[in-house]
Amino acid sequence: MNDSGRKPDFKTLRPATRLVHGGTQRSQFGETSEAIFLTQGFVYPDMETAEARFKGDEPGYVYSRYANPTVTMFEERLALLEGAEAARATASGMAAVTTALMAQLKAGDHVVAARALFGACLYVVEDLLPRFGVASTLVDGADLAQWRAAMRPETRIAFLESPTNPRLDVYDIAAIADIAHQNGARLVVDNVFASPILQKPMALGADCVVYSATKHIDGQGRCLGGAILGSSDLIENEVHGFLRQTGPTMSPFNAWVLLKSLETLPLRVNQQMSNAARVADFLADHRQIRQVIYPGRPDHPQADIVQRQMLGGGTLVALELSGGKAAAFAFANRLAIIKISNNLGDAKSLITHPATTTHQRLTPEARAVLGVNDGLLRLSVGLEDADDLIEDLAFALDSLDQQGLAAE
Ligand SMILES: *Cc1c(COP(=O)(O)O)cnc(C)c1O
After folding, report:
1. Which of 262, 290, 307 is the last residue of a domain?
2. Where are the annotated coiled coils located (predicted)?
3. Is 159 among the domain residues?
4. Ligand 1 centroid vs 407 CA: distance in angstroms?
């Protein structure tokens, strides 16, 4: 607000503008960049104010486990991007998933989840929730009949990720939301792989969206973070109390890093996506590659759903080499620019071999059900020049011939 007194209404402004200005709270110093409030607590002018704040009769901060001004700025900016009424930040993506589920569930409830979940999400659904009396059923997320059949009277939550890790399957969020709602359940979507730029699950009918801000939102490999978004009712009445009392709170420093990252999120995601599309097309034509999976390509198995619910194919590409694990290892070991790492969404292109890393914990049978075979690699495409990435990939693929790992 300048001297004119005109105040922007962020709900009517476009996403890029929301991401630069939304949620900003300036201190009395009028700083340009948002301030980091590295403080645990807050002082009150008098005892009456302290009493009123604790009673909730007066707005204002009390303790940074409950809320902190820098964290609030991040939450508000992200909620404006998502089009959600409210958001809460958490220490990591897994803190967001665990909080979102635990805050909404109680013993006797039932959860239906797509089987292709991030490893730690699978642990929460399969191992942790049952310990507290919450049963779960895993389904093939692409098969709507399985979602329908798994619903029970006590089903409270349907949970999915789309695109999935690592095979980048895309599920019909609107159809699954309908199935959940017809059965009195809510749909929670882990939207990490699409990022808030490319997919808006709440507009498709989801009740709650969770993020690992560690991925595209930071996008520069610096800090962990997470977020839970939904209606004010869900966030304030169910999620907030759980967070406040159990403490998986985001640090104000991390909130500041992530808040500044939101300013450039659309630029980064769109450029990474354009690089990913070029890399996917290059790989699809290479004879060492058995299969390329990229949601932005017309040969993706759910290309029609991608068209309906995403603004593009995303920043990840899955590729399967003909020569199995030996070829996958030899290929990745010969890359020079693309780094071997299990993170994703980063400015640096990163490649991982799911069968021996993220999905190592699973039995070979469980990996087979998920299509995580030994020749599969997951490539998170970064902000390098796409031509350099393609040359790096071409060199490593061509070197497979010299190592006697040519395509059969
Ligand atoms: C990384 C990731 C998480 C967990 O996030 P952390 O920030 O590592 O705790 C959850 N879901 C998906 C899909 C992820 O990729």
Report:
1. 262
2. none
3. yes
4. 34
Place of tokens 């009673």: 55
pLDDT at 276: 98
224 lines ligand 1 (CB under 6 A): yes
Which residues in 200-338 belong to E strands, given as ranges? Answer: 208-212, 226-230, 289-293, 316-321
Cα 223 to ligand 1 centroid, rounded to whole Å: 12
Of 246, 262, 275, 269, nearest to 388 by C-alpha is 275
* Residue 59 falls inside a structural domain: yes
Q: Is 93 in the pocket of ligand 1 (CB under 6 A)?
A: yes
> Which atom of ligand 1 lies at the shortest distance from residue 193's CA?
13
Residues 375-387: b if buried by 16+ CB within 10 A, e if exposed: bbbbbbbbbbebe
Res 402: pLDDT: 78
The pLDDT of residue 407: 55
Q: Is the pTM of this model over 0.85?
A: yes
pLDDT value of residue 356: 96
Give the domain range for residue 50: 10-262
- Tokens representing residue 49 in the block: 């104010």
How many angstroms is it from 248 CA to the middle of ligand 1? 15
The pLDDT score that the predictor gives to residue 306 is 98
Which CATH number goes with the domain that contains 71? 3.40.640.10
Residue 178 lies in a domain: yes
Evaluate whether residue 31 is within a structural domain: yes
Give the residue ranges of the chain where pLDDT is below 50. Answer: none
Q: Are residues 40 and 176 in the same domain?
A: yes
- Per-residue model confidence (pLDDT) at position 250: 98
Which of the listed residues 90, 99, 215, 261 should we mutate to test ligand 1's pocket, taking the one with most ligand atoms within 8 A of CB? 215
